[in-house]
Amino acid sequence: MPILISSIGVFVIAAAIGNWEWFFSNWRAQLFVKLFGREGARVAYAAMGIGFLLLATVAPQRLH
């Protein structure tokens, strides 16, 4: 499970850094784009990606 969560985090960070048009034009991402603007949505998604990476590293340690 940590590999899946960290993969999602890396993917979301790459989308934020790469400013992928197809990612940010998706209807799910449009909420953040409308709320924060394109650059704000990129920051929000980068923060989410970092959160996923932290979750993937910290959660398994706490479960044991």
Please specify the SSE layout and strand pairing:
Layout: H1 2-18, H2 21-24, H3 30-63
Descriptive overview:
This protein has helices at residues 2-18, 21-24, 30-63. With 64 residues, the chain is mainly α. It has one domain.
Mean pLDDT equals: 93
Distance linking N and C termini: 14 Å
Task: Please give the radius of gyration in angstroms.
Answer: 13 Å
The number of distinct β-strands equals 0
Q: Provide a count of the helices.
A: 3
Classify the secondary structure makeup into a structural class: mainly alpha
The main sheet comes to: none
User: How would you name the oligomeric state of the polypeptide chains in this document?
Assistant: single chain
**Uncertain segments:** none
Total individual domains: 1
Beta percentage is: under 5%
Structural shape: elongated
Order of helices and strands: HHH
Q: Helicity level, as a percent range?
A: over 70%
Features:
elongated; mainly alpha; 3 helices; 64 residues
Can you summarize this structure?
The protein has 64 residues and is mainly α.
